[in-house]
Amino acid sequence: MSDRCDIVLAGAAIIDIPVVPADPSVFTRTSTPAGRIILTPGGDAMNEALILSRLGRRVRLVTRIGCDDAGAYLKQTCASAGMDTRYMREIDGLDTGINVVLVDEGGERRFFTNPHGSLRALEAPDICPDALDGAKIFCFASIFVFPRIDPAALEQLFCRARERGLIVCADTTLPKRGETLADLAPALRQLDYFFANLEEARCITGLTAPGDIADALLRTGARHIVLKCGADGCLIADTDGQQHIPACPDTRCIDTTGAGDNFAAGFLSALLDGRPFADCARYGNACASVSVECVGATTGVTGAAQVARRLRAAYPDSV
């Protein structure tokens, strides 16, 4: 296997079991019929890696899985997609994470998770220097997911990636231990691109307005900020200013699971092509739009031609 790759993704790889639709009434009955119940790959890094692979990118995934049937399924899925799986660590005694995802009629989801499984098991030494060899981009798929990778460890990790000449990116989840922007600033200073949804960014900064949030994040030294705003699209910001990129119109939302991961994957794929900042955001919106029209985080996007069609339909003046 070649040591060359386009992008290294580090983060969680688990299995999702989406149930659509589901609402609180399920707890009042012994049995409830659902429209769909499926089994799919899941987890932030796994989602991004699969979508990037389908968009034609050479991907290396760094994660932890268990020595169990669920882990074997994930590793085989990655291998079948053409990924470099050498840094998927199989750990004895660790349960590969399985999430049950309850999706309501509006497409919003709630998770049952196993905090003791592989979902939160990654450690900083797993992302060894060799794992970054030959790559153009390094993306840490979700800040705050892994208890043993704190802001100080993130700063060191991002510094190492920058020193090796990689474009360094990161996405986030909600803070788990009350971390603030001051805690995260030294790590953000090392980033070329920082992704966050609006709720996450509000928790980190303590601010409300998207424009104010973007300004505060830029002041940390992060070079580009991408605020994912769901049905409102996204707000992008750098030293040249801010721009709102509207979401793709006429999207029929069924399941928002993994929408942000699909956005990030699309954005990163466009970045690899050298597209301008705003065009990367539009491509990310197109991937997210395709994704939410299907059940499951990784079932919607099947290839670059499909996303290109959505992109042309949504932004005809920009393509």
Strand order of the largest sheet: 6-5-1-9-10-11-12-13-14
The residue-averaged pLDDT reads 95
Unreliable spans: none
What's the end-to-end separation, in Å?
35 Å
Structural class: alpha/beta
Largest sheet: 9 strands, mixed
Question: Which structural traits does this protein have?
Answer:
alpha/beta, 319 residues, 14 strands, 9-stranded mixed beta sheet, 5-stranded mixed beta sheet
What would you note in describing this structure?
Helix content is 32%, strand content 22%. Helix 8 (277-292) crosses helix 9 (304-314). By secondary structure, it is of the alpha/beta class. The chain has a 9-stranded mixed sheet, with helices on both faces. The chain is built from 9 helices and 14 strands.
